[in-house]
């Protein structure tokens, strides 16, 4: 009798478990409820999508596909690991220009870039060879303008202007490529687009800077935006006119490429005037460098607001899509 009772209890238990299983099997799949929500890796500020089946890619890039511009604006993956040497460098008529401190490791510019001649300007030693600036003033704008002035009559066909950081968060957070790598960014650059357009911002992610970082007539003045507070006055001094744009927008952070033809659209005297302003302004380095950050695209022939969509920028600048 007891044996039969035990068998009955066991059978009822099995039936209960089976019933529960079949009930939950009809529910939606919640094995990974965040599968389609971008995942943020706070250690490397990496943002990835759980489903990569429809992703677009370019060398060194991973761009999850969406139909939403807001999602696209935060959709490139990064990795803090170092970049390996990517093989032999084919000859090409390209120059990469940067300013660097004496202590910066900039060997990557000559060992890891394919087909680029490096012009590394030491900014804190006015006897450094082969290139140096006369003063450590004006952030990266000093090195960029010094290169243009010194090489105006012998420019490379394509010139990239970048910071001295090779890769990695936090130093190179403003570089879009995986690992925040300037090596991957430059080795993936679509030179044909630079030649057609005259200018290419190497950063496609719109923030900060787009769509309207600076408002000439904004009242009250936003004192937290230091470039906005001085931009109009700086424009008048640099360009000697009052044609200050009412709105200026461009993705930060002064890393871009320009064609020789576009650089030569301005005279050497104009670049000398810009450099003279940079050396003589009473603005501190942060403010004077920031002014040029929002001028480069205009200097090289673009409208005051230069904010292509993320997808368009990746297609044009890096051949993604």
TrEMBL record:
Signal peptide as annotated in the record: 1-19
Protease in keyword set: no
A Pfam family the protein falls into: DUF3431
Keywords on record: Signal
UniProt key word Magnesium: no
Compositional bias per record (Low complexity), positions renumbered to this chain: 44-57
PROSITE patterns for the chain: PROKAR_LIPOPROTEIN
Top-level taxon of the source organism: Eukaryota
Stretches the record annotates as Disordered: 44-94
InterPro entries noted in UniProt: DUF3431 (IPR021838)
Positions with biased composition (Polar residues): 65-80
Protein name (record): Uncharacterized protein
Originating species: Aureobasidium mustum
């Amino acid at each position: 009798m007891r044996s039969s009772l035990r068998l009955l209890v066991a059978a009822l238990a099995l039936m209960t478990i089976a019933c529960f299983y079949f009930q939950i099997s009809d529910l939606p799949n919640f094995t990974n409820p965040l599968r389609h929500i971008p995942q943020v890796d706070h250690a490397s500020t990496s943002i990835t999508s759980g489903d990569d089946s429809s992703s677009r890619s370019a060398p060194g890039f991973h761009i999850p596909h969406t139909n939403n511009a807001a999602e696209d604006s935060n959709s490139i993956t990064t990795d803090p690991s170092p970049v390996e040497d990517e093989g032999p460098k084919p000859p090409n008529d390209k120059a990469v220009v940067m300013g660097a401190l004496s202590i910066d490791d900039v060997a990557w510019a000559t060992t890891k870039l394919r087909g680029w001649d490096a012009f590394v300007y030491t900014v804190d030693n006015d006897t450094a060879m082969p290139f140096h600036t006369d003063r450590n003033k004006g952030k990266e704008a000093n090195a960029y303008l010094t290169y243009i002035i010194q090489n105006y009559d012998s420019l490379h066909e394509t010139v990239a202007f970048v910071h001295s950081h090779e890769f990695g968060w936090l130093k190179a957070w403003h570089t879009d490529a995986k690992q925040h790598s300037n090596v991957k960014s430059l080795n993936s650059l679509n030179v044909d687009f630079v030649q057609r357009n005259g200018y290419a911002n190497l950063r496609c992610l719109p923030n900060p800077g787009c769509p309207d970082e600076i408002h000439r007539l904004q009242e009250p003045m936003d004192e937290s935006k230091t470039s906005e507070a001085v931009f109009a006055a700086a424009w008048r001094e640099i360009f000697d006119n009052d044609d200050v744009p009412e709105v200026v927008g461009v993705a930060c952070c002064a890393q871009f490429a320009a064609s020789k033809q576009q650089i030569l659209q301005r005279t050497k005297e104009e670049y000398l005037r810009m450099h003279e302003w940079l050396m003589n302004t009473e603005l501190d380095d942060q403010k004077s460098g920031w002014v040029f950050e929002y001028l480069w695209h205009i200097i090289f022939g673009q409208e005051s607001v230069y904010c292509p969509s993320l997808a368009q920028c990746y297609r044009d600048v890096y051949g993604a899509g």
